[in-house]
Amino acid sequence: MSQAHPYEIAITGIKVNACHGVYPKEKVVEQEFRIDVVLSLLRPSDADELCATVDYSQVAKDIAFFVSSTSFDLIETLASGIARELLE
Q: What is the pLDDT of residues 11-58, one digit of tens each?
């Protein structure tokens, strides 16, 4: 059983136009996707420096790039892919 992460950072409202979906039209006509993520941290940073914590701007850019440069049938698979990308 994993331990709860008391420190969370929410990034909400990331808007990306992309082609994801099961139906043929969804594979060629872009739709707007709105993505929210919650990052769980083991502990907060004591340093007042960006390099010591999560760069929210870069995380949002990484998510937008991943969503716009891939294509999945299922939103659940897209969400799993986003999580994998962030963990890498």
A: 999 999 999 999 999 999 999 999 999 998 877 778 787 777 788 899
Residue 36 burial (CB count, 10 A)? 9
13: enclosing H helix or E strand: strand 7-18
Q: Could you give the 3-state DSSP secondary structure of residue 86?
A: helix
Nearest to 41 by CA among 26, 59, 67, 23: 59
* pTM given for the model: 0.84
Quickly tell me which residue has 């994993």 as its tokens: 2
What count of other Cβ atoms lies within 10 Å of the Cβ of residue 49? Answer: 8
Q: Which amino acid is residue 20, in one-letter code?
A: H
- Beta carbons of 27 and 76 less than 8 angstroms apart: no
Which residue, among 54, 55, 20, 53, has the nearest Cα to 34 in the 3D structure? 20
Residue 18: C-alpha distances to residues 46, 72, 81 (Å): 38, 10, 14
